[in-house]
Amino acid sequence: MKRNILITGGAGFIGNHVVRLFVNKYPEYHIINLDKLTYAGNLANLRDIEGMPNYTFVKADICDYEVIKKLLAQYEIDGVIHLAAETHVDRSIKDPFVFARTNVMGTLTLLQAANEYWESRPEGYEGKRFYHISTDEVYGALELTDPEGIESPFTTKASSAEHHHAYGREFFLETTKYNPHSPYSAAKAGSDHFVRAFHDTYGMPTVVTNCSNNYGPYQFPEKLIPLFINNIRHRKPLPVYGKGENVRDWLYVVDHARAIDVIFHRGRVAETYNIGGFNEWKNIDIIKVLIKTVDRLLGRPEGADNDLITHISDRKGHDVRYAIDSRKLKDELGWEPSLQFEEGIEKTVKWYLDNQEWMDNVTSGDYQRYYVDMYKGR
Ligand code: NAD
Ligand code: TYD
């Protein structure tokens, strides 16, 4: 079936993996990647597919209502996969306004424009879908210790629901009450509410997913994993917030893209699906794995870079633990992560070490000058 799908934020970290998957897997679809190319957007992430006949890039701001309305009609969009957002918690602490603008107003702008366009069509909402990508951070934070007070292993390989539930641990479920703490998660929560409101008010066919922390190639090096890989390589200090005891649930980015594919096509309208890997790690343990892996791959002696770990004062309002229960997605749609964490981390570290040019361009800002000039006026 032919479809015209608008993917927003496709030049960002997760977006480029989603665009690549859709362009390659569905040659009969036309994929329109709309991105403002903020500091986080980089068209070099998409070089391998930029010449594909079923792919179009448009530089635009999701807050620009007139432009979005025009594009929806011009490309006869029947599906939206919305990833564009401001995404870094530390930036949201310093400058919350842009988070409200992009994440809340940008999402509302897309919803309103899509709703008007679809309502104006003779077939209405038939065959349409608005898929909003969100985060587990909207649920707030979980306790670090289990109800029994057992210091249970967060860093074992056993990444099954049964293992974790055996400890009586708490998880984020689709029904967990929203309780965002950072300006980033508050803005994402606001956008999630608007998406659900458009379903409940107008009957718009929406779906929302809340995913845990992603890792993998093409992540902007302000986030923990790429920042630390690059710092270890260059023997720069590793700034660990507090004791490094905070826990995150890590998912390989391509597995997130696979989940988005499954949910876009088969997820039930108006539903929420949690996406996660049952893969919880304390930051400090992940950092040790990164040091070990980078040093091994660079042929440095084991433990050579342990002294780069530098504890700094904690992030303001630092959420202690995130952990997703994604059994609904598994039971309903059969999705599961395909990679064990050890494998995913090895691939990821190798990718960053092999793509130093990408990292240098991103850290120097060169990627923006080149590509922004190239697409000026589009
Ligand atoms: P990212 O910061 O790497 O990329 C965001 C992209 O959005 C960039 O390409 C940027 O140019 C674009 N963008 C920003 N503002 C825009 C605007 N006003 N108009 C058009 N484009 C704009 O983000 P990411 O990590 O790829 O996250 C993508 C989505 O997934 C976000 O909605 C985020 O909340 C969600 N998410 C991320 C994670 C994660 O671990 N990275 C986990 C769960 C959910
Ligand atoms: P991050 O990658 O920013 O993702 P998020 O805050 O959305 O979970 O951070 C992951 C964890 O790593 C988080 O607990 C904060 C911590 N962290 C550090 O200790 N130092 C750093 O320099 C960064 C970027 C993160």
Structure description:
This protein has 378 residues and is α/β, with parallel strands linked by helices. It has a single domain (4-216, 250-280, 318-339), classed as 3-Layer(aba) Sandwich (Rossmann fold), CATH 3.40.50. The chain contains 13 helices and 12 strands. The chain has a 7-stranded parallel sheet with strand order 3-2-1-4-5-6-10, sandwiched between helices. A 3-stranded mixed sheet has the order 7-9-11. Strand 1, helix 1 (13-25) and strand 2 form a beta-alpha-beta unit. Helix 1 packs across helix 8 (253-266), helix 4 (97-119) packs parallel to helix 6 and helix 9 crosses helix 11. It is globular. The model is unreliable at 152-158 and 374-378 (pLDDT under 50). The chain binds nicotinamide-adenine-dinucleotide (NAD) and thymidine-5'-diphosphate. Nicotinamide-adenine-dinucleotide (NAD) is lined by residues 8-9, 11-15, 35-38, 40-41, 61-63, 83-87, 102, 106, 133, 135, 188, 211, 213-214, 220. Nicotinamide-adenine-dinucleotide binds at residues 8-9, 11-15, 35-38, 40-41, 61-63, 83-87, 102, 106, 133, 135, 188, 211, 213-214, 220.
Per CATH, which architecture?
Answer: 3-Layer(aba) Sandwich
- For this structure, the CATH topology is Rossmann fold
Mean pLDDT over the full residue set: 92
Order of helices and strands: EHEEHEHHEHHEEHEEHEEHEHHHH
CATH fourth-tier homologous superfamily: NAD(P)-binding Rossmann-like Domain
- Strand segment count: 12
* Major sheet strand order: 3-2-1-4-5-6-10
Structural class: alpha/beta
Total number of distinct structural domains? 1
Which residue ranges are poorly predicted, with pLDDT under 50 across at least 5 consecutive positions? Answer: 152-158, 374-378
The helical percent reads: 40-55%
Spatial shape:
globular
What is the CATH C level class, in words? Alpha Beta
